[in-house]
Amino acid sequence: MTTTLTTLTAACATPAQLAHHLRHLPPGAPLLLLQDAVVMATQPRFETILARFDAYLLLPDVEARGLVSRIQKGLKTVDYYGFVELTLQTQNQIAW
Amino acid sequence: MTQLTVVFRQVPHGNASGREALDLVLLSASYEVDTAVCFIDEGVYQLVKGQSPKIIASKDHIATFGALPLYEVDKVFICEESLQERGLSPDDLVIKAKTLPRVQIHRQIQQSKQVLTF
């Protein structure tokens, strides 16, 4: 089976909007939040939806926005090398 | 009635809209346009303390929010609900400004002669 890394770059206004974006994504699928999307990982209201996936955050984007101490539990961070590794571990990438 | 209301509604650094909006506010205030500023939705992240935009090669406009009083921009409003939804409190922000419930932010926007959103 093909594995796909999904990347999100924009912040969703509500958990419902995030769930809508991710409705085609199977549970446990790798998901990387980067750029403005990282703010969702600091908000408790998005926790349940993100927990369904193998969610990663691009750390420099969190640091730039001053939000490192607010990252919700259970979310993993990666640096740029980690981002490259994720793309190597999966066959495809979708920028949603 | 306020002449101009500038609304910040996006996360900083993903694009330049926050910096552009702030430039506009300071410019219009220096031309003595009666200017108000609202921070709503993701826009409240513009004001979070401890940002390091240089890490992602983005220009740091955040400290410049502190110049708003110098330009006599005193109508600065932050949406209470937007802060709460994001687990933020007024203490987490780089400026001291009035927090208002969403309905009052709406009123401010409705009562302004011109509104520009960023």
Describe this protein with a few key phrases:
heterodimer; A: 96 residues; alpha/beta; Hypothetical Protein Ychn, Chain: A; five-stranded parallel sheet; 4 helices; 5 strands; globular; B: 118 residues; 3 helices
What is the tally of helical segments of chain A? 4
Largest interface: A-B, 19 and 21 residues
Q: What Rg of chain A, in angstroms, do the CA atoms define? A: 12 Å
Approximate strand percentage of chain A: 15-25%
Into which percent range does the helicity of residues of chain A fall? 25-40%
Pfam family, one (chain A): DsrH
Protein name (chain A): Sulfurtransferase complex subunit TusB
Organism (chain A): Ferrimonas gelatinilytica
Family (chain B): Belongs to the DsrF/TusC family.
Summed up:
The complex is a heterodimer of chains A (96) and B (118). With 96 residues, chain A is α/β, with parallel strands linked by helices.
Give a description of the structure.
The complex is a heterodimer of chains A (96) and B (118). In chain A, helix 2 links the parallel strand 2 (30-33) and strand 3 (54-58). Chain A has a single domain, classed as 3-Layer(aba) Sandwich (Hypothetical Protein Ychn, Chain: A). Chain A starts with a strand and ends with a strand. Chain A has 4 helices and 5 strands. Chain A is of the alpha/beta class and 96 residues long. In chain A, strands 4-3-2-1-5 form a 5-stranded parallel beta sheet. The longest helix of chain A is centred in the C-terminal third of the chain and has 10 residues, at 80-89. In chain A, 29% of the residues lie in helices and 22% in strands. Chain B has one domain (2-117): DsrEFH-like (Hypothetical Protein Ychn, Chain: A, 3-Layer(aba) Sandwich). The mean pLDDT of chain B is 96. A 5-stranded parallel beta sheet of chain B has the order 4-3-2-1-5. Chain B is α/β, with parallel strands linked by helices. Chain B has 3 helices and 5 strands; from the N terminus they run βαββαβαβ. The two termini of chain B are 21 Å apart. In chain B, 39% of the residues are buried. The longest helix of chain B has 14 residues, at 17-30. The radius of gyration of chain B is 13 Å and the shape is globular. At the A-B interface, helix 3 of A face loops of B.
